[in-house]
Structures are given as C-alpha cells and as structure tokens.
Amino acid sequence: MSTPARFHIQNFGCRATQADGAALESLLSAIGLQSSESSSADLVILNTCTVTSAADSDARQAVRRVHRDNPSARILVTGCYAQRAPAELADLPGVEWVVGNSHKSLIPEIVAGAPYHSHLHVADIFSSRDYLTAPGMESLPHRARPNLKIQDGCHNRCSFCIIPSVRGRSRFSPVEQVIEQVRGLSDRYPEIVLTGINLGRWGRETGSSLRLPDLLRRLLAETHAARIRLSSVEPMDFSDDLLGLMAESPRIAPHVHAPLQSGSDAVLRRMHRKYRPRHYADRLAKARAWMPDAAIGADVMTGFPGETDAEFEESRSFIESLPFTYLHVFTYSERPGTPAAAMQGAVPMQVRRARNRVLRELAEAKNLAFRQSMIERTVSVVTLEHPGAALSDNYLPVQIENWTGANQLRSVRIGSVTEIGLREKPRPGLILLDVAARRAGDSATPETRSSERFG
Q1: For residue 202, is pLDDT > 70?
Q2: 399 exposed, middle or buried (CB, 10 Å; 0-12, 13-18, 19+)?
Q3: 3-state SS class at 45
Q4: Cβ atoms of residues 76 and 111 within 8 Å
Q5: Mind listing the pLDDT tens digit for each residue in 225-249?
Q6: How confident is the model at residue 443 (pLDDT cuts 50, 70, 90)?
Q7: pLDDT at 450
Q8: CA 426 → CA 53, 120, 430, distances in Å?
Q9: What is the DSSP string of 277-316?
Q10: 104 DSSP assignment
C-alpha cells in the first residue's frame, strides 16, 4: 500500500506519552506527511496508556470509533497498552499495525512502507537503551508549553504499577542533548515542561555523577528558556538542593508534583513505596516554606487491596493536613501481572469510588482556598492555544483580557475566581512579554526578575 499523506495522533495518559506524541508528529511531518483531523486522515495513530483498566477501555473505544467514523483510515496503535497486550489490540477491527514502546521510534519507517515482515512490532522493552524524544518542535508552531521527555523507564517496583514492564529500565537523555533541545524550543516557547516516567532519577545511572539540579543549573546558565516547569518527581527526589534551586530561580516554575498514593503507613508498605508519611510531609513542608505561593499536587489512590476504613481515614486525615493545592485522585484498578493484583482483601468497587469522591471533595476545597488567596495578587502567566486562556506559573488556569496568541508571558492582576481557575482583573496597560523581550531581560538583577514574576 502507498504511504499515507495525512495523519492524526491521539494521545492518552501522562505527559511522557504526550511528549512521545509530539515527537512522533514532528518526525512524521519531517518525512512529508501532513497533520490533519481524524475524520480526514489516511493514518490514525492511537498513542495509548495502560495504567488502569479504564485507560485500556478508552483505547479500545477509540479504535472502534475511528474505524466507524473513518473506515478507510489505517490505524496504528502504539504506546504502553500496545507494549503490554499487542495481540489483544491487533484483533480489533481496523487495526493495521501494533507498535510497542520498544519500536516507537521506527513508526515513520513502518508507515512509509519499510520491508517489515509483520504488522506487530514489539520486543523486550528491558533491552532498550534509547527512547523516543523530540528532535525539535519546528513543525508544531500551534502548540504551547511543549513537553520535553528527558528520561524514560523506571527501576521502582511499586506493587500496583504495570509501567516498568511497558517502559523498561530507567535511562536518560545526555545533558548536552537536553541543552540543545531546550535551546531550540526556547526560541519559540516561553515555557518548557521537562518530563519523564521517573523524572527525578535523571542522571542516576552507572557512570554518571550528575543529578537533576545539575541539569537545571546548566539549562539556566546555557539557554534562554524563560520558564522551565518540572512534571511529576518522586517525593524523595525533591532534595533540599532541588527545592532550594526552584525557590531561588524565577525561571523555574514554583510547582511541586510529588506522587503520594496513600497517607497510610501500612498501605504504603504494601504498595512497596520507598518513603513513609513523615518523610513525605517533610518534603512538602520545606516546599511550602521556601515557595509560599507554589502549586503543590499529588497522585493519590483509593481502594488499594486491604485498605480498611481506618487506613483510609488515616490517609484522608494526612492529606487534609498537607498544603496541597490540587490532587489527582485515582480509583485502584487491578493490573494483571502486578503483585497487588494477587493480594487478598479486594475492596468493593463501590467503596473505592466512594472514597475517591471524599478525596476529590477535599481536593476541590483546597484548590478553591488556594485560588481565593490569589485575588488581588499579580501572577505571571503563559498564554495558551485557546483564546483568552493562560496558565499561571503556580499552575492555575487564568482567563485573561486582550489575548493576542499563544506563547506569550504576561504579568496579570487577579480579580476573581472562576469555576476552575482565576480571572484577570480588567485594567489598562497589561504587561506583554514575548520571548525576545524576556531574553533581553536576562541581564536584569534578581530583584528585577522577581518583581516581573510576582508584580
């Protein structure tokens, strides 16, 4: 068959998957394919997640929907679900290729008609030494806040998690490569999000003495990136060095996302997590003390096997005591092949979901209080793709006046809260900073840069 002319990529799941999707889009555009809507695409790529059974279901539904709405499209399924259960996906009507994470970087060759002998491309992920990362974003000018994956894989063996078996061993991009990529991105984007499967382990491999704070210092010194944001970092990787650097640099977003999973010591032990609640609380206490206005978020799980009413209350009370500004709350989902799936004491699904609602309500109250604390404050925002939309440095959606396009930095004064975010207080003379202006301000004093950020 001929090489498709138009493609569409749909991403599911985490920021690392989104970064993979952006890299794929760039690579396919580089060989002459054009991005389009799913309804008009010759090739539809579904870049899947498999962290929960619901994620698997979403991917299967997407395959059926694409095949129904665009029956002539060739469907390629890739990502974590494809790595875990390729035959399951290959049996779905309309699927032409299944490409695991082990072969994701070969997708441009596969769809261009390279002479492969199978439409299933999956191998042992633990033998992989490299991974897909964006060579550049020149072909994606409509995007804001690009995700740059600088690490992949995970050495942790949490009892509930399937991800190590579909992402492989921890590995990271060389420092010089990251610097070069950030230099290229900072010419177009005022905010760059560094991401990975276990981002805090960047540099922690045999033969490397570098750590994530070392990389950040190099990026601050050797690139013009106006704002760098870290995605999820494991709690014990938020060292004093990392938190201190985040607190002192106005070019690093004040945003701490540290997965918690549970506030119960006994549940954390069954999960095989590497910290206890007191360790976690210490990290967040320092983050809040050193960055009073920072976003602080976590992933938490309800209904882990054996979770009693008392353990859930211990977790809820612990979460309530911490300075969270948002939570991502998940209902535990059995993943075949994980130790947790074989544990006794399964929590009834209705109980799992009821506990989920309790934590979501707690999170909503904490988030509202945080947003209300921003009223009559001046915050730094980056404008997003949708007219009127922006995101603050401390991770709050902001509706702004006089939106003139994505990828601009502004200092705005907050007038009120909205249902999910903030609204700018109307006033004349909004400060508009583009990337070039921010570059010109690199010579400003730390005090000046601080006033630009906080007003």
Answers
A1: yes
A2: middle
A3: strand
A4: yes
A5: 999 999 999 999 999 999 999 999 9
A6: very low
A7: 34
A8: 45, 55, 9
A9: HHHHHHHHHHHHHH-TT-EEEEEEEE--TT--HHHHHHHH
A10: G
Tokens at residue 116, please?
Answer: 């492969």
Computed from CA positions of residues 9, 14, 15, 19, in that sequence, does the dihedral angle turn out positive or negative?
negative
Please indicate, yes or no, if residue 138 is contained in any of the structural domains: no
CATH code, domain with 329: 3.80.30.20
pLDDT of residue 134: 61
Pairing of strands 43-48, 74-79: parallel
- The CA-based dihedral angle spanning residues 400, 401, 406, 412, taken in that order and rounded to the nearest 10 degrees: -60
For residue 179, the cross-strand partners are none
The whole domain housing 212 covers 147-372
Using left for φ > 0, alpha for ψ between -120 and 50, and beta otherwise, residue 399 falls in beta
pLDDT in the model for residue 433: 52
Query: Which residue, 372, 390, 409, sits at the end of a domain?
Result: 372
pLDDT reading at 138 higher than 70? no
Task: List CB contacts of 139: < 8 A, sequence separation 6 or more.
Answer: 25, 26, 29, 30
The conformation of residue 343, written as its DSSP 8-state character, comes to -
71 CB burial (10 A radius; 0-12, 13-18, 19+): exposed
Distance, first Cα to last Cα, the chain: 58
Above 50 in pLDDT, residue 436? no
